[in-house]
Structure formats: C-alpha cells, structure tokens
Specification:
single chain; 289 residues; mainly alpha; 4 domains; elongated
C-alpha cells in the first residue's frame, strides 16, 4: 500500500490564506470568524476598501454600506470615508439656504444610520462643519434621537442587554475596553447593573499567571478600595475575572479577612455596649469599668 505524503507546510499555509477575492488582502479573524479590523492600520483598511469597491464596481457610500456593512462602519468610525474616493458630487454650501442644509443633513443621516454628532462628524466632516458654523446642529435632531434611545431607567435588564449585544455586533466590538471607549454611557449602565458578563465581551487579558498570590491579593484589595466594594458578591459583579482567579487560588478569605475582621470587631463592640447599657439600667449605682 502506498503511503500518503503530507503536503509541505508552506502549501498548507497558502491554502488557509486564500484571498477573499482576487487582489484583496485577507482581514485577520478571531476563532469565531469575526473580522479583527483593530489589527489593521488606517492605510491597510483604506486600501482594502478601494480594492473591494473596484472589484465590485462600487462608487457611492450607500453601495459600499450595502455590500459590506462592517467595513463601512469601520471606515466611518475611524473617519476614513473621505479617503476612500467615492464619486460624490461637489456641494456648494453657500448656494444652499439653512433649511436646505438641514434637510440634506437629515436625509444623509437617515441613509447612513447616523444618530449622534460624533458619527456625523466622522462620516462627513464638511457637512458637520457647515452645520456648526451656521448654528444648525440643534435643528438636525441629534439630541431628540439620543434621548429617545437612551432612557435606561425605562428599560429592563433584558432590553439593555439586547441593545448592548446589537451595538457590539454592529460595531464589531470584542472587548470591554473597546465598548467603554466607544460608548461609555452604555458601558456604565451595564457595569452598574452587573450585566457585562451577559453581553459576551472578552475582558482584556491580565497576566495573572505572572503574579504571585501576594500581588493578586494586593491588586484585589486596591481595586475593592477604589470601587468601595465590601462584599464578595460586589466583587464578583464588578470584576468576575479577578473574582475567579481569587477563588481558584483560594485567596478570597485573605482578600476579605480585614473586612470580615472589622465586621466582627464592630459586632463585638455592639454587644459589649448593649450589655453595658443593660447592666447600667439594672444597677445604676454600680460603676462598670
């Protein structure tokens, strides 16, 4: 029987790195197949977008958005849409009245799913500048849309988690720090309600294996002091990763020892004070040392 020969290592790698389309470079992906744009610099992303547009015959922003929503969002959030080279008509703002500029902006925002000022500024800094110079930003409708979407007190936990998951998926966010930088308001709501674990984001990897038990305990105690955490459940909600490291190493008792000792001391003092007051009430003439 003939023995099958294994293909050379180089050949195997070439097969795994097949381009997405002719002339297009590969975009790094994680284990779940999600594209990791953060590992590409601005120049690489613009080059990728230009080649994709050329191969698919795309000339307008809306066409690119339909063809590849993830790529379009990355270009928009990094402020790179103006560098891709869309076939947009030159606009003569000076010939447009305030009403026409506002209507143009509202239509542009609707077509591109823009709801916040920062998003419009990144998507079209020229239009944003005209609105700002003419004092028209308040007439476009940013604040009304924002208030409508961000009334967290009227949303239950399931609704907030759903909003967060949708936002994370659309923006291709994989880590908590990314969400915190992109949307600090949503991040804080999730953190305060103890919902970060339910969103499915990865925590930034900390090198716990390189830290001794003493270092981990010291880190945990400083973290608890900063966050004013006094109980185990509070620590678990605030940082489940740190809590698990402490639990697996059997360090939880050491971390909470001073807090629990203080509680015992307070309880003991309370009992002594109560007994003292009782004794005084029973024998008012007797002095208790």
């Amino acid at each position: 029987m003939r023995k099958m020969q294994k293909p050379p290592v180089g050949k195997t790698r070439e097969k795994k790195q097949e381009p997405l389309a002719e002339g297009l470079q590969i975009v790094p992906t994680d284990s779940a197949g999600r594209r990791l744009w953060k590992k590409m610099n601005d120049e690489q992303i613009v080059e990728f977008a230009k080649k994709l547009m050329e191969e698919k015959g795309l000339t307008k922003r809306k066409e690119l958005q339909k063809a590849d929503q993830g790529l379009y969002f990355v270009l928009r959030i990094r402020g790179l849409l103006g560098e891709v080279g869309f076939d947009d008509k030159l606009r003569s703002w000076k010939d447009m009245s305030n009403t026409e500029v506002v209507e143009f902006a509202q239509k542009f925002m609707e077509e591109n799913g823009i709801t916040w000022r920062s998003e419009l500024k990144k998507a079209d800094c020229g239009l944003y500048g005209v609105l700002k110079r003419r004092g028209l930003l308040g007439e476009v409708g940013f604040e009304e849309k924002k208030r409508k979407e961000r009334i967290w007190t009227k949303m239950d936990e399931e609704e907030i988690v759903e909003v967060a998951r949708r936002s994370v998926k659309e923006r291709e966010i994989t880590e908590r720090d990314e969400l915190k930088k992109t949307d600090s308001g949503l991040y804080e709501v999730l953190r305060k309600r103890g919902l970060l674990d339910k969103v499915g984001l990865e925590e930034r990897k900390r090198a716990w294996n390189k830290m001794s038990d003493e270092e981990v305990v010291e880190f945990a105690q400083k973290f608890m002091e900063k966050k004013k955490i006094t109980g185990r459940i509070g620590l678990q909600k605030a940082d489940s990763g740190l809590y698990e490291v402490l639990r697996k190493r059997g360090l939880l008792d050491r971390v909470f020892a001073h807090i629990e000792r203080q509680r015992d001391d307070n309880a003991r003092d309370a009992v002594i004070n109560a007994l003292t007051e009782f004794a005084k009430s029973e024998n008012p003439e007797v002095e208790i040392a």
